[in-house]
Description:
Blueprint: E1 3-9, H1 17-32, E2 37-43, H2 48-57, H3 62-72, E3 76-84, E4 87-88, H4 90-98, E5 108-115, H5 123-134, E6 138-139, E7 144-147, H6 154-173, H7 182-187, H8 192-198
Parallel strand pairs: 1-2, 1-3, 3-5, 5-6, 5-7
Antiparallel strand pairs: 3-4
Helix pairs in contact: 1-6, 2-4
Amino acid sequence: MSTRLVVVSAGLSVPSSTRLLADRLASAAVAAVHEPVEVDVIELRPLAHALADNLLTGFPSGELADAIETVRRADAVIAVTPVFSASYSGLFKSFFDVLDSDVLEGLPVLVAATAGTARHSLVLEHALRPLFTYLHAVVVPTGVFAASEDFGGPGLEARIQRAAGELAALLAGAPRRRARTIEDEFADPTPFEELLRGA
């Protein structure tokens, strides 16, 4: 059985430094995990309208539903966002807002962010780590922040390798858990009273 690694990138431009960082983290993680790894990349930019619709209606459609299901089947997630107004982007937050509350529970998550200046580097600790802790994910100790001047420098590569190694260690030590899929729900529905307790 291969490890399912899902990369969520909230970059808005094409090409995107956020996507570049996400790809470097994914490559390092694949190299660090000593077993076959299946990588799925979710670009949030094309899902912007679907996310707004989901926030208004409460239901995902089309590609957004597929993206949510992809995260539901993940063994680990790499989540990368650009920094806007000293925090994660609204698009990034909207995606994690529409996930069911248990989707990331116990799941190893590597957090990363990009910005034009190193002054935003604490975004990992004051915004991203609390968000994923709230969602009951297991956040990798080393987050990766990259300002524009970091790309091409040895310091960024060292942080990427360290974070990827920590993600691989979490995957090796943790029992596999997957949130219930739609197929699971049809095969063995969650009792209604249990659903009400979670509301």
